[in-house]
Amino acid sequence: MANIVVYDINKNQVSERELAEGVFNDDVRGYLIHDMVRYQLAARRQGTSSTKTRSEVRGGGKKPYKQKGTGNARQGCIRAPHYVGGGAAFGPRPRDYQFKLNRKVKKAALRSALSVRFKEEKLTVLSAFDLEKISTKGVVEVLNRFDISKALVVVSDANHNLELSARNLPNVKVLRAEGVNVYDVMKYPNLIVTEGAVSQLEGALAS
């Protein structure tokens, strides 16, 4: 049974909630987390690195000197790779680094990542994370009450005050439930989730 205490932003216990076993207390499969992180990082790569080959470098269309009789090695073009200013041999070319992962694998990886945080007792559930005004100091004060300095905060809906308040904090990231991903869950050692977001995650990831 996966039970967790629900707090308000003042760290007062509000209630206790039962978490879905298959989402927050699933078997942790490290290889799936690894594959998913690789998948996300590969998708971020632009793949635009490029060098010119000998056929693309400007000039060099004329044979530099006659084939025989000069005492030099035979050359057909001054834009060959061994010449200064010549084309690159086996240089990088534009490419797509993305690869495919099945939808079931992606969901299982996210369930494993969430389960890691729950089993490490690094998961905090709040009834809500509502601020009266835009205040970076207000976010820091809430985190300090829970002895947290670096965290991923997951909310159910748009939270204008919270999103603007946290954007100047380098160690805090705010995501809506539909944007939760394995890379960010593993990057931040603490996970703060509102009750509404917990329900959304359970609905989306239930097997």
Overview of the molecule:
The protein folds into two domains: 2-45 and 101-205, Ribosomal protein L4/L1 (Ribosomal Protein L4, Chain: A, 3-Layer(aba) Sandwich); 49-96, no CATH class. Strands 2-1-3-6-4-5 form a six-stranded mixed sheet, sandwiched between helices. It has 207 residues and is of the alpha/beta class. It contains seven helices and six strands; from the N terminus they run E-E-H-H-H-E-H-E-H-E-H-E-H. Helix 5 links the parallel strand 4 (151-155) and strand 5 (172-176). The chain is elongated. The mean pLDDT is 94. The protein has helices at residues 21-24, 30-44, 103-119, 136-145, 160-166, 182-187, 195-205, and strands at residues 2-7, 13-19, 123-126, 151-155, 172-176, 190-194.
Per CATH, the architecture of the largest domain is 3-Layer(aba) Sandwich
**Within the CATH hierarchy, at the fold level, what is the topology of the largest domain?**
Ribosomal Protein L4, Chain: A
Q: Please count the helical segments.
A: 7
Oligomeric nature of the chains: single chain
Using only CA atoms, what is the Rg? 27 Å
Number of domains: 2
Mean pLDDT: 94
CATH superfamily of the largest domain: Ribosomal protein L4/L1
Q: Helical percent range?
A: 25-40%
* H/E topology pattern: EEHHHEHEHEHEH
* Strand percent estimate: 15-25%
Major sheet strand order = 2-1-3-6-4-5
CATH secondary-structure class of the largest domain: Alpha Beta
Low-confidence stretches: none
Q: How far do the termini sit from each other?
A: 17 Å
Report the major sheet.
6 strands, mixed
Backbone shape: elongated
The beta-strand count equals 6
Structural class: alpha/beta
